[in-house]
Amino acid sequence: MSYLAFIQDLHTKMKSEGIDPIQWEIRSLPIVSSTQDYVKRFFRLETDRVIVLSKVQESGRGRNKNIWQSPDGGVWLSIGLKNKFDVVELSTPVVETVCSVLEKYVDCTIKQPNDIFVGDYKLAGILVETVMSGDKMSEIMIGIGINVNNEIPDIVKDIATRLSDHISPPSVVSLASEVSLAIIKMLTSLNFI
Q1: CA distance 151 to 169
Q2: How high is the pLDDT of residue 69?
């Protein structure tokens, strides 16, 4: 399934859960510098709900501006919301939600504050960025990187893993849709949507 099928796949999954996909700007791109940066640019266009999946990120990043290698074959995803939100700690519920999706496929654990491991190897990382406006959060950007079928770069081979090292994984499109839907439902339960 082509990464472009993400839009249709996510639309279908959202509708089946009673979520209106028209309320979201959903993008699937062949290459982007960073899905987080792409979401920020969309916010300038007065779009307040964005989901972006990219086949490749040229400048993916994690916490503390660490580089996140993002070649073809992984889930490189960002979900953004723009509004006025009370300040809450979002990293924990986001990483717990992503881990709960991945637990359907592998035995994984959370390494605080924002990583998901299989054994001693990193499978996924989460980056939650916010913009403040007074005492409220005005923008939330949730970045999710999951190694699925992608090549693990030599520089991190001794600390990283991918789903295909453990199972016959779902397609990137299917997994990205599943994770997106789980995050939307979690944000809805916290009254962000």
Answers
A1: 14
A2: 67
Question: CA 80, CA 185: separation in Å to the nearest integer?
Answer: 14
Contacts (Cβ under 8 Å, ≥6 apart) of 12: none
What is the average per-residue pLDDT within 98-124? 96
The pTM assigned to this predicted structure is 0.93
Cα dihedral 122, 37, 29, 128 in deg (nearest 10): 40
Higher pLDDT, 156 or 80: 80
Burial of 49 by CB count in 10 Å (0-12 exposed, 13-18 middle, 19+ buried)? middle
Distances (CA, A) of 32 to 77, 78, 127, 131, 164: 11, 12, 17, 22, 24
Rounded-to-integer distance, Cα 29 and Cα 177, Å: 14
C-alpha span between 190 and 28 (Å, rounded)? 26
Domains, the chain, in order of start with CATH, read: 3-189 (3.30.930.10)
Rg for the chain, CA atoms, rounded: 16
pLDDT of 46 over the 80 cut: no
